[in-house]
Write a structure and sequence with these properties.
It contains 13 helices and 7 strands. With about 475 residues, it is α+β, with helices and mostly antiparallel strands. The strands form 2 sheets. The protein has a 5-stranded mixed beta sheet, covered by helices on one side. Strand 3, helix 12 and strand 4 form a beta-alpha-beta unit.
């Protein structure tokens, strides 16, 4: 496992080196050929790019906030606040002023630069934070409100000193004003800090989100360098830095979305492990208690009583061994790493090892199940076959996981047991568990049973 982690990090590192080389060569080429166009007068396209960046930053902030609600990590709190600040700064200082066809005025331009710097201070600090917050949504709301207040203070400050502010853009100038050059340099350093921070975090923890954040920060770094070294023009123009910034936020959005999916799956795995732990307590622990009880009785038993105690001890030991196998298999499936088909076939092999029940398993190879669906389907089949073995007095069962012509996916468990009158007999806890699990993955549940004709249950999954 450690070797695999090192290989993944080395692949990431070589990818970063290649990306740095390509983007650095591109920047050097434009710097060495000043006669090439680095900006184009396309005000409509500029507005579209700014809007795309704003939407992407807002979505990343929303996804980070959702993950903070799931896991409560301070990393996600800073990411949510930082990207929210970037989105609001772009919306208030770059988009809103030009909607009416007017150029961005000096105070709004400087407020936008300062707002983006503030946002990236939070984002660059995120990989160096640790721990979880116990205050949940309250601290998230307060942090977002504080970011909004900070942007308002920035706008107020620049409006108060509007007359003393230097111009942001000029067609004649080959270099930006010194103050602006310093601010852009600081932002580039923050981008670089974020690249290093998320790269180190990925090496240490191996989380998928850190890799995407490092990649996005790399693109943002070279976008900032383009803004720094190429002549700045008015808001009517677009440059290579604008395109790199859009790509960077697109990458960040993909990484945040993947992190949300992994967080939801991780929570499902944790819940499943807790459920398996309860089953171990209710099943295996009780059999072990029976083993201990019969062993104690064996110390004082003699004659026929001793033979009966030994027989009961063997029976309890065999049952405990089978329960232990089931528990190990359930935990391997709950880890999310065991192949679904293999885990299900192993479970059936354990279940039918004593020859009392024959089970036929038919899985359509074209059926795709999401990770959370795999866990629930495994447990539904396990619960259904457990009911067959315990209550149906059946000799044969059939499990089918397939897809109908109309694309509807289904899971069915049928047996040739005694059956029961579904109208007169209330379902037991096992059927209630199956209904609950089907509902958790937006599936429908149906049961058909008749005395003397066996039982058939079916779960239909969402399309």
């Amino acid at each position: 496992m450690q070797q695999d982690s090192r290989d993944v990090f080395q692949a990431f590192l070589w990818g970063q080196i290649l990306l740095f080389g390509l983007l650095g060569a591109s920047l050097s080429f434009f710097l060495s050929h000043r006669n090439l166009h680095t900006h184009w007068m396309l005000p409509e396209l500029g507005l579209v790019l700014q809007t795309a960046v704003t939407l992407a930053a807002g979505i990343v902030a929303l996804l980070a906030g959702v993950r903070f609600g799931v896991e409560g990590r301070r990393l996600d709190l800073l990411l949510c606040t930082g990207f929210l600040g970037a989105a609001l700064s772009n919306l208030a200082f770059s988009i809103a002023p030009v909607i009416g066809g007017q150029p961005v005025h000096r105070p709004e331009g400087w407020a936008g630069v300062a707002g983006r710097l503030f946002a990236w201070i939070l984002i660059a600090a995120a990989p160096f934070t640790s721990g979880r917050s116990k205050w949940g949504s309250r601290v998230l709301g307060n942090a977002c409100l504080a970011a909004c207040v900070m942007l308002l203070l920035i706008w107020t400050a620049f409006h108060s000193f509007a007359g003393a502010l230097p111009e942001l853009a000029s067609h004649e100038a080959n270099q930006p004003p010194p103050v602006l050059a310093g601010v852009l340099s600081a932002q580039a350093l923050l981008n670089l800090l974020a690249v290093v921070g998320f790269g180190l975090r990925f090496r240490e923890k191996g989380e998928d989100l850190d890799r995407w954040l490092a990649l996005g920060a790399t693109l943002m770094l070279f976008a900032s360098l383009h803004y720094l070294f190429t002549p700045l023009v008015s808001s009517d123009y677009v440059s290579q830095g604008d395109f790199l910034r859009v790509i960077a936020y697109g990458v960040l959005m993909v990484g945040a979305w993947r992190a949300i999916r992994f967080a939801e799956f991780g929570r499902a795995v944790a819940e499943e492990r807790a459920r398996v732990a309860r089953e171990i307590h209710d099943g295996l622990a009780q059999y072990l208690f029976a083993v201990a009880t019969h062993a104690t009785m064996l110390e004082t038993a003699d004659g026929a009583s001793r033979a009966e105690t030994i027989a009961n001890l063997k029976e309890a030991t065999t049952a405990a061994q089978q329960e232990a196998r089931f528990a190990v298999l359930a935990l391997s499936s709950a880890s999310g790493t065991a192949p679904f088909d293999a885990a299900l076939r192993r479970y059936i092999d354990f279940l039918t090892a004593d020859g009392k029940l024959e089970v036929e398993l038919d899985i359509d190879p074209d059926v795709w199940l999401a990770p959370d669906e795999q866990i629930e389907v495994f447990r539904i089949v396990q619960e259904g076959l457990g009911n067959v073995r315990k209550h149906a007095n059946a000799t044969r069962a059939e499990v089918v996981i397939g897809e109908r012509v109309d694309g509807e996916r289904f899971v069915s468990v049928r047996d040739d047991g005694e059956g029961f009158d579904g109208q007169a007999t209330a379902g037991g806890q096992g059927l209630k568990n199956i209904r609950s699990r089907a509902k958790s993955i937006d599936g429908g549940f149906s049961l058909t049973s008749k005395p003397g004709f066996g039982t058939a249950l079916e779960v239909v999954l969402r399309a």
